[in-house]
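lol forgot to send this yesterday, sorry. struct tokens for the thing we talked abt
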């Protein structure tokens, strides 16, 4: 009987489908926002003041956050700039792929119709020796898991 261990959380890649990506464009240091939750609507119970009823409404997905070291030559930034500055919204599907030790996909999250809503660069400080990190937030409608 083989013992199965949970996968490591640092071996992954992010593919933005429909963009001409380089090897550097799929590498991020952090991915956040792969969460789903149920939105509910509260209704007071008639004659009861101790509690309210909660009814399910829809699934909610927070925005995806991607972080990595700042790159000069990237094909992602023009897409971000077009969406945020020029309001030329062109949604893309995104795959977040968790890899095993052989660099093969273990699990893939397919995010539907994502587009950037925020881009930021880390603070600069002469007192620190940290690299410059860019982060971007992306709205998406939902995800499926394969």
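and heres what i got for the seq, position by position
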């Amino acid at each position: 009987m083989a013992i199965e261990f949970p996968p490591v959380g640092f071996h992954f890649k992010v593919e933005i489908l429909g963009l001409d990506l380089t090897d550097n464009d799929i590498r991020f240091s952090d991915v956040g926002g792969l969460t789903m939750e149920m939105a509910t609507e509260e209704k007071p119970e008639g004659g009861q003041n101790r509690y309210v009823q909660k009814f399910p409404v829809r699934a909610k997905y927070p925005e995806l956050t991607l972080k990595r070291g700042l790159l000069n030559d990237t094909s992602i930034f023009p897409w971000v700039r077009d969406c945020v500055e020029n309001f030329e919204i062109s949604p893309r599907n995104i795959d977040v792929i968790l890899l095993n030790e052989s660099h093969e996909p273990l699990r893939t999250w397919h995010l539907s119709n994502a587009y950037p809503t925020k881009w930021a660069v880390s603070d600069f400080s002469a007192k620190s020796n940290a690299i410059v990190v860019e982060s971007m937030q992306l709205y998406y409608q939902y995800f499926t898991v394969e």
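The CA atoms of residues 30 and 67 lie 5 Å apart. anyway ping me if u want another try
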